Amino acid sequence: MAETGMSWLSRFRSSNNKHYAPNRHEGFPPIGGLALTRNKPGLPAPGSPIKDICLPAQLVFPLVDYHKHVLTPVVSVGDCVVIGDWLAPGVLTSANGVVSAIEDRSIIHPSHCSALCVVIDTCPDTEATLAAIQTNEVFSSLTAHERIRRANVSGLGGAGFSTANKLAAIHSSDIKLLLINAVECEPMISCDEALILSDATHIIEAVIQMINITRCARCVLAIEDDKIDAIPLLQAAIKSSRQSIDDAAVNIELILLSPIYPSGAERVLVQRIIGKMPSAGIRATDQGILCLNVATTLAASASQHGAPLIWRVVSVAGSAAAQPVNVRVRLGTPVSHVLEQTGNESAINNSGCTMRIRAGGPLSGFDLPNLNVPITATTNCITVEPAIASEAAIDSASACIRCSRCSDVCPVGLLPQQLHWYCDKTLTDDAMRFGLNDCIECGCCDVVCPSLIQLTASFRHNKATLREQQLSSQQAQISKVRFEQREQRLEQRALQAQSLRRQRAKQLQAKTAEHDPIAAAMARARARRTNK
Amino acid sequence: MSGISLEVAAVKYKRQSVSVVMTHVLIALLPGVIVYALFIDARVIKNIFIAVIIAALCEAAMLALRRRPVITTLKDGSIIVAAALLALSLPQSLPLWQLIVGIVVMCSLGKHVFGGLGHNPFNPAMVAYAVLIISFPQTMTQWNTELGLLDSAPIHWDALTSATPLERLDTTLQNKLFESTNTTSIDKELAADVLKQSNWTLLAFMWLLGGVYLLAVKVINWRIPVSVLATLWLAYLAYGSLSSSTVIPATMALFTGAILFGAFFIATDPVSSATSHPGKLFYGVGIGLLCFFIREFSHYPEGFAFAVLLMNMCVPLIDHTFVRNSLRTDNAKRDST
User: What angle do CA A380, A384, A388 make, to 5 degrees?
Assistant: First the structure.
């Protein structure tokens, strides 16, 4: 099936890569994207574990979800928390400690905004904490999906969607394809590859566990064909799992893709595997495809044994990094602590003057406001770059000449030149019609733009503004409905009261008509008079 | 949302900046200009030189008036390309003052009244061409060719005073019609003969060569030139088979006049052309058809400028219509629900 869409180019590629596997598959060619030179420093040697970073004195947990919706804390200052306790719906503590503050702190976000955060003074962990969760009676009665929700597993690739919500979006009987995403095309980011290199067997076991949980019809493990160290490890692990489990249902297809950035983005990956891009506004889950990053798969599998999602692998790289490395970091760890522990002290001291610290890779990433921002589940990479005269770069941006290089490389088939025009003129309706909300913010258009226009930043900004507008208009709508309901209620009540009053008046009238007290009094007086 | 970060780090990727794009266009023009100067009319060099200088001055004045950075904007080279293209589209015998009028119109009415580079709805060079041909029809249709640098004695009519090469061909064909009754075969021979003799055909080949270079360095997309040329070819083929009168053979028609020059250098102007892939095809077909109709059924021997300007007017509509397919289907779905 996959062969039908192969271009002559990928066929040529495959002939060069014959040494891989006997039953090798190739995906479909992408509709856009960039072929970037592989640049992945700091990978561990195959089989060697990823270094853990020691627990910092303080952990910070932003109480916002991906859409900047503020979450309400369920703890208060002074509370003692242990690993796996909820701080707010959707936020777990990753260490034992005491809540020392709940306050506004800056977070990792392209807008450099701040958000309400729970700050925890940590105390050393005890293994007993984790063991206690695992032997917890309540825990052992949970279903697989509930365990994933309890462990707060969320996407460790890019968007950070809750895995439990993703699972809930598809009825488990409808999962046609479980797509494990090991594609990481952006230079500098190598955290998923590091995971595979350090423990491929574990990953394959986790994939098999997810196959059993989801009972999917087909399972695909997608990886780029230039990860030449990781692929043999995965192949060996799949082979040995087949021998040991001997289960016909468990069949992991390893699909090797040509490394075109951004094939790791969910929409693009789905297109490269099934050959068709999901239509605008339609998620992979709507088509019965469950797409999980390898790290997420590992976390989901660990959640079945009670381990909550408390750490992730972060790549520390960049042209000015002293020592590119992949490290395992507790969620909530400040970036400065990560840099300190990875030998990049100079970056901390020179941040803002000669060095720039960025979250994410060189294309999709953005500068950090300061180094106290905490690592979250979506922080896959910290890059240390030499400072550039950023003002000069912005100044040199010239007018769009509509050369359409951006639309040639757009991996989701948008027309960035048109979007740019509409965003520039704040014609948001037209921008929406041209698919502004389908932009995956990959940054390909920025790289090819001959006029050096910062397209992605503008789209990101406009998307956020639009989302805020929608949110406020939604809220206005809700308030309007509430107000109208109240008015209606008051009116109804007034009407009721009025009708009640009328009824009473009528009753009174009827009563008086029956025996008028005045007439009766007069009759009595008359009677008295006649008696006299 | 406050203080959005306006930076995305550069990746090691060979980016073609606007000035590089413009340099490629100038390189692509080079073989054509050389052939033009050597075999047709040496004045072209002088005219291009003057046009570029005046255009740069005019552009600088416009930028200064609009309070925009002058030097950095001039550096992108777009005005040099526009001036060279205009100078190449005009007859080299055009009086200097008329050339200057053309340049000033190109800079002001063609470009800066709309907001400068990237905002002009019409191809600036073609705006100037249209203004000139309407204002000065006599000088604009007299292709008073002097000797090329390498031309020998003025034996054949390249060195003679004549109308446009295209008009000349038409006239020759019609003269022949009076003499002979068996038209088609002789006409074809004659046309081939005329074209072979003519250095204009060589020039057309040079424009084709330049166009292929632009395609190779990915400065232009194949869709516009291919659709323009294919439409014209089919139109001449159909016209030739339908009408009994003399028509130049379809393939040769592509090598006459400004068709190859226009298809590769004029119609492909990114600013004023359609931007989506299907839109580009539509735009090219429109130019091809309009150009054919103007050439064959109007008083103007060469209709490329008007075809381009008319299609420029349609570009907003084309761009509005051709949103990518995936988006359209979804919009339809959203509308229906």
Answer: 125
